[in-house]
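One thing: could you explain this record?
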Amino acid sequence: MVDPRLLRHVLPICLLVLTACASSNPADVTTTTVDRTEAAASAPAPPVTSSSDGEPDRNVRVPSSTQPVIDGSLGALEWEAATQSSMSDGGAVYLLQSDSTLYVAVQSDEIGSVNVVLATEAEVWILHSSAALGSARYLPGDPGWTLAHGFDWCCRSVSDQTERDALFSSEGWDATIGFAGDPGVVEYAIDLPWEGAALAVSTVRDANDRGFWPASLSVDARTQIVGVPPSERSFTTAEWMILEN
C-alpha cells in the first residue's frame, strides 16, 4: 500500500519536471494540510515597521539558541526563542541561529512545496523542498541574474541521512521533505553566508493557493520566487527581509 502522504508530495516533483520540459511557467503542486484557522490565529504579524524616513524597515533579527532538530516537527522548546512572523496565507516563518548556522521553519495549513530564497551581492540561492530537495543558484548577470545551475533532485528518503549529509557538505544546506514529520511543517538548516543577506519564502499548493513571506511582497516579487527557474531572472530583493545577527 502506497502512503497517501507520499503521493501528495511526489506530484510536486512530477509537475515541476513536466513544466520544465514544456515551458518556463511556474509549476503548481498539491499538498498535505492542517487547519488554516489555527495557523492564522497562532501566527504573529510580520515584522515590517516604518523607518524614520517612512520607508518599511525590513531588518529582522535572528536570535541565537540551541540547535533545533531538523525533523519536520516544531518542538515547543526548540523554536521558542525564534523570531516569528506571518506569511500572506496565515502561515508562519521561524528564524533561529546556532553556531553560525541559520535555521528556518515554515508552518502552514497547506504545503506542497517550499522555496527559501537567499540573496547576497554575490549569488541567489533557491532552496526547494517538496517530495525531494533541490537548489537553483544564480550569479550576477547583465542586467539581472544568470542561472548557474537548476534543480537537481536528491534526498527523497526520510530515513537515509547519507544524501542529506552530502548536500550539506557540498552546498551548505539541508531541509526536511514534505511527508516527513508533521503535516504543514518544513525545517531548514542553512550554512551559506546569511548575515546581512536578503531572505524571502514561498509555499505553493496550486495556482490559487500560495503563501509568501514577507506578506507584503508585490505581485512581481512573488512571481520571482516560485516555479521553474529561467536562465535569466530579476529579483526584487529590496522587498525581502534583511537578516541581522
Summary: Residues 1-54 have pLDDT under 50 and may be disordered. The chain has four helices and 18 strands. The first helix runs from residue 4 to 22.
